[in-house]
Amino acid sequence: MNSSISIVLAFLVSAACGIYAAPAVAQAQAQAQKITVMTASSMSPAIGEISKIFQRETGIDAIVVPASSSALARQIIEGAPADVFISANADWMNRLDDKGLIIPGTRKTIASNSLVLAAPTTLKDPVRLDALKATLKGRPLIVGDPDHVPLGRYTREALQSMGVWRTLGEQTARAANARTALAQVERGGTVGILYRSDALSSPLVRIIATLPADSHKPIAYLAGVVRAPGAHDGADARRFLAFLSSPAASRVFAAHGFLPAATSTDKQTAAATAAKTATASGSWALSALEVEALTLSLKVAFWAVLISLPLAILVAWVLARRIFPGKTLLNAIVHLPLILPPVVVGYLLLVSLSTQGWLGAWLHDTLSITIAFTWKGAAVASGVMAFPLMVRTIRLAIEAIPAGLEQAARTLGAHPGRVFATITLPLAIPGILSGVVLAFARSLGEFGATITFVSNIPGQTRTIPLALYSLIQQPGGESAAARLVVLSIILAIAALIASEILARKISHRLEG
């Protein structure tokens, strides 16, 4: 009897242990069968396809995380749990290597690429590489941002070698990464310099010419196994790294337009030029580029508010004082920019207001007005994003005005327009002012819709948020980024204080 009880108890204990241990074992196995591959955006389609083949052959799930090489390197430095890093820029691979974040002996070149001049298939005007500025006819040239995007650095080197960078510098629309540059060429109605692999991947793009190979450094894609907090022991990552040199992976690379890897895996010399900015000294004096970004931000925010204010007052008054079918729908549409991701708003603006969009094409062909990739487009994007804040604040101010005052004026024979101008508007001024300040501050901080709609063009669309984004992506940009952060905080505090002072003065005047 006792032996039977002992057997039963032993069985129950072992079963319980199995129940509790099974999830832990399964979790450990699941963790061991997954790796994170952070890859340069230009290589993400090929790496995504290779990861599927790798998963079928090994059972290891390689999760692909695409972005610009600089952004990924920054994240790895800050402790992002990456297992494999694939970079289009040797500078950032060198930086991780110097910090001991790449396991020795794992770094190698896996593919190469070339630069091409590409145009959307819908573009009718002929564009020539040997007469680029003349044949652009005032349109921007889409390039990667040379301050932190490898595509941009190679492009700058090539155009400098060809002697046209100085004349085209202010005419370039700078994309946040290589895939964004491709998307902007597809939909922007203008030409751009892309990786050959990206241009071949899109049916909406045609290649005009290939830039000379000797005009820029070899475009090499480097891969290495990451030694970072949260990464695994490296065994699965090493298997993936080895698989990148397999015949199956080579076929995928070739199908996506990549060229064979160079034989050398030595460190390349870091590109001198723009990555080492004049701001690296740590001085708190603003550089010319930072002053330019500040001036442009104030200009864009001013026009965004000025353009939005009349319509915001009208819409706020209608929502506050009128009852009509569809009022709820109108209110929802007005507040959509508060809910939608800013990138969605920017994309909608791009497809409608670019020279290939239905409204943008009409404005360009009929009135010779170009909005996309200009400071005017930045003002439109900021105005759209700030519009709901302005409308909501003004609406609350109008609703706070006793309706009896307006009714009494109408009873005495005042025209509705006169009632609005002499009673409603003056009493709503404090709320209007608050709405203006909120919209101005929101416009100063606008990023997502702006970079999607008008790119990141120095002197044209690079406002403070975009300049800050560029600086934190490049080595040595920390000091300049800190200055812009402090400047942004000062501007926000100054705007709020000024708003409070003016609101009090106006309120006292109205009460008097």
From TrEMBL:
Membrane-spanning ranges: 300-320, 332-353, 373-391, 419-441, 480-503
InterPro entries: MetI-like (IPR000515), MetI-like_sf (IPR035906), ModA (IPR005950), ModB_ABC (IPR011867)
Keyword Cell membrane recorded: yes
Signal peptide range in chain numbering: 1-21
One GO molecular-function entry: molybdate ion transmembrane transporter activity
Location relative to the cell: Cell inner membrane; Cell membrane
Keyword annotations: Cell inner membrane, Cell membrane, Membrane, Molybdenum, Signal, Transmembrane, Transmembrane helix, Transport
Domain (ABC transmembrane type-1) ranges: 294-497
Membrane topology, as annotated: Multi-pass membrane protein
GO CC annotation: plasma membrane
Similarity comment: family membership: Belongs to the binding-protein-dependent transport system permease family. CysTW subfamily.
Biological role stated in the UniProt entry: Part of the binding-protein-dependent transport system for molybdenum; probably responsible for the translocation of the substrate across the membrane.
Protein name: Molybdenum transport system permease protein ModB
Naturally occurring in which organism (per UniProt): Varunaivibrio sulfuroxidans
Organism ancestry: Bacteria, Pseudomonadati, Pseudomonadota, Alphaproteobacteria, Rhodospirillales
